[in-house]
Amino acid sequence: MLLLLPKFRSPLPFSSVRHYHYDVEKLFEGVISGKRSSLSKAITLVESTRADHLILSKDLISKCTQYMSTRPRARRIGFTGTPGVGKSSFIEAFGKFLIEKNHKLAVLAVDPSSSRSGGSLLGDKTRMQYLSVSDSAYVRPSPNGGCMGGVSRNTIESIILSEAAGFDTIFVETVGVGQSEFMVADMVD
Description:
Strand order of the largest sheet: 3-6-4-5
Shape: globular
Distance between the termini: 44 Å
CATH topology of the domain at 72-186: Rossmann fold
Largest sheet: 4 strands, parallel
CATH class of the domain at 72-186: Alpha Beta
Number of helices: 6
Radius of gyration: 18 Å
Oligomer: single chain
Number of strands: 6
Order of helices and strands: EEHHHEHEHEHE
């Protein structure tokens, strides 16, 4: 969308959109070597709805699944409850405990989606201050994108990527409990 302003001769972009070029092999190597930036880009890739990104993400997930076939699976734990009950606070405390016991923790926090941007609305990461800065933790808020079941449509792919990146414990925090937050049960231990 372009916005035309009366005193400007050329149109200004209404919003800036970054387009990434993804090299799947390079991204895969970065993920399995534990680079956070590569993990973040990989999760962004699997969350994308662009047709070319869907093809690339399937290739990346296939590589990670094959890589993980000879390695131990991470412990997967799901957290659900009514909004405001303290899920994020509990995850922060329990996560800190696990890190002190030398575990590597990935937190996949599924938030409601913004109706304007489609991104995460609440940002549970702000309530996990210790985990957000710990070298042994990775916190990734992701929008649910209107997906029923309390998780996003790409949560399982994010779990696979986090395991490939070397995290031995993965927390999945759902949007909140109601009548439809059951999908997380199929993704965790």
